[in-house]
Write a structure and sequence with these properties.
- By secondary structure, the protein is mostly beta strands.
- It has two domains: 31 residues, no CATH class; 107 residues, Immunoglobulin-like (Sandwich), CATH 2.60.40.
- Helices cover 13% and strands 42% of the residues.
- It is built from two helices and nine strands; from the N terminus they run ααβββββββββ.
- Belongs to the small heat shock protein (HSP20) family.
Amino acid sequence: MDPFKNMQDWKKNMDHFFGEQFWSEFEGILKPPIPQINMYQSDNEITVVCNVPGMKQVKSVDIFVDYATLEIQGVISLPVQGHLVQEEILQGAFDRKIDLPFPVRSDKIDAIYQNGLLTIQLYRLITKESNKHRVSVRVMDE
């Protein structure tokens, strides 16, 4: 028996009572943000690894850096047909803003997509400029 089935039924009843907008305040608690990330820090660098399965074209994801914030926008869509029975791989449109441990340079950023992982390499900013820049992503052949 699925222990979360009763929670889904409970959520449907609450939607009916409070309205669907009620849950927007609890979205981060009920389901984790997407894409899932790991962040690694050294003295002058930050590496962010994002789980973005099934991305066919790198143009379907946008990456922006502004001072000490990384923003990733895009869509995760899995090319599977049929009735969904269980969902653990979250999918859909996402817009995730990530606070970085220190300000980073907007002119020196590397982004590579390989094997379903988007790896973004950022470098420490020495000055206090704040400019939002779009980052281009390269595809690595397997």
